[in-house]
Design brief:
Elements (H helix, E strand, L loop, with lengths): L3 E5 H15 L3 E5 L15 H5 L4 E3 L4 H13 L3 E5 L10 H8 L2 H4 L9 E6 L14 H5 L5 E3 L4 H13 L4 E6 L6 E5 L11 E4 L4 E5 L4 H13 L4 E5 L2 E3 L3 H11 L2 E8 L4 H12 L9 E5 L10 H4 L3 H12 L2
Amino acid sequence: MSNFVDMPIARAINAGLRKAMAEDPKVLLFGEDIAELGGVFRVTEGILNEFGPKRIMNSPIAESGIIGTAIGLAMRGYRPVCEIQFDGFIFPAFDQITTQLAKLTNRSEGFLQMPVVIRVPYGGGIGAVEHHSESPEAYFAHTAGLRVISPSNPNDAYWMIQQAIASNDPVMFFEPKRRYWQKGPVNLDVPPMPMHSARVLREGNQVTIATYGPMVNVALQAAEVAAGEGVSLEVIDLRSMSPIDFNTVIESVKKTGRLVVASEASSFVSVASEVAARVGEQAFYHLEAPVLRVGGFDVPYPPAKLEEIFLPDADRILEAVDRVLAY
């Protein structure tokens, strides 16, 4: 019998990290203020007391140094888990991630494995200033050699962080920060599915909504509203932005004939763009309408008082649903 426990996403990640550390002494955690403080979002709270300062360490405020250290540790057989404090702080480490971490296994013809996990709290909805609410996942999904994933619920958070740590490839683990304290059941015994598989969260037959991370709840809200108006929406949580489980999306589109792809990130040159393009290539004759994208506007992330206008909501998804149904 499976063991279910209700917990928020932040606590589920914490529990997953603890389990991975207990099972493998080579798993190390480090980042800015993650030890005594437990990180700015308290995701690593209490881990120092359990595993000590040799397993979880504070780093200098130097993101390039954080990733460079992780690469060196991986070369010596460790499985480092780094925290980048906020999404917009990742860019000083961009060169280390994209030209070193992502390339070393290929460069060494497989001799060097890079089992590095980079935890990135991302997205808006917390009323923060510039560089604290961005969605930079497309930069990394575009980079060959990186795996890019994002949980939308506590159960996925608990299992996907463990799957990421177990991977011998570098994994960008994007954590939807405005969902950190969203509670849900966690099955402590049985993983839900492979790390890169998409999941149909709600079945429907008129329009497919494909999304991930912080937008999953918004899509489910839109589906609930649409159901009250007699419109049946199928909601897919992609869970992985690289690689993407296109088969699940295409099978859904073959049933519904319509697709809306939603994300907080700008839709221009995005994960949503790639999903739209691939469905256009592989399910063209099943489409009854063009694929539409719903995302943040193509502007820098706005001040906190404007972020509710910037972030896509259920109404913007439903407006796109109306448009695809009108064809």
